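Homework help thread (please don't just give me the answer)

Our assignment gives two proteins as sequence + structure token strings and asks us to describe the second one. The first is just a warm-up. Here they are:
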Amino acid sequence: MIVARRNLLVGATGLLLAGCDKVAQVPAARRILFAGEDMHKGLQRALLDRGALAPEFRPDQMSPIFRANGTRDPGTPAYAAMSADGFASYRLRIGGLVDRPFSLSLAQLASMPSREQITRHDCVEGWSAIGQWQGPMLGTVLKAAGMRRSARYVVFTCADLYNGQPYYESIDTVDAFHPQTILALKMNGRRLEVAHGAPVRLRVERQLGYKHAKYVTGIDAVASLDGIGKGRGGYWEDNVDYDWYAGI
């Protein structure tokens, strides 16, 4: 059932990308294509152990090519300056419903206990690839900030701009503290390249690829998604009606 749900979403979205995008402009069709989010979420969470791990793979199973999707370079003056100095000036801001808001340099993030995992990236467009990711667990960072019990979601703000505004995405606290949810600093044994989200990319391994925000610059714990974008918690969710919960 879980695989069928993923295939249904990927298949429907693939049709849109292949030339049926006019269908997505019809409100009734959009509701049909992207309906059932709460049901899918509840059903999956009822059937699966919340702490279950996504499959991990051997080094010899890694894909020879791992596509870069979405933004390949934010192209802003601020990002260009950070990239030019090797991200020495980068700071990751942690705030919202936390007792100890702070910011971390890339070196500080790299000094934190790190997790390495080889997992499959499943894109909503219908392709997949296996790659190795390394970085601190998101839960470690949130614990250091003293996330409050009133927080229900974690929102990510990014360096790339869409329609002049920073890209954004969110997950709930269940996925935020999952051991495979990491702030990846390395891919395939090397520092992240710009096309893959340097210097920090979210990896939330039990969700589809559009949830894996690149170029992360800010993390906020919040009680509600009401004030985030148009209220659905992510750029694609707000503007293309993607499911907020993209569990696989």
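The one we have to describe:
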Amino acid sequence: MKKAGILNRQLSGALAELGHGDGVLVCDAGMPVPSGPRVVDLAFRAGVPSFAEVLDGLLAELVVEGATAAAEVRAANPAATALLESRLPGLALVPHERLKELSAGARLVVRTGEARPYANVLLRCGVFF
């Protein structure tokens, strides 16, 4: 058994399969989950695990070369805005409907228990070399 990093075997395995340019949607409990991508649902109850906890865990495991979130996050969820901008310099903002369209091309969806609006981000994987 791993003693550090992500212990959830489904999530750990899915991350190991990602390659350069693959998309990972990290979403709140209310985001419509697109059909097609592999889904790892971590939601336990409202707020658990939080969007911040899951995002920080993923960022510790992945190389990210770009990120996209819904522009509506700025007005509707200032805490998520601050989190995203502090962790993801160069964050691109698009209308929420466009984010949902882009999410259909993700390779992996990680659903959190977050219950605040627009706590969603699409990460684009980079390479470590």
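TA reply:
I won't write it for you, but here's a hint about the kind of observation we're looking for: The radius of gyration is 13 Å.
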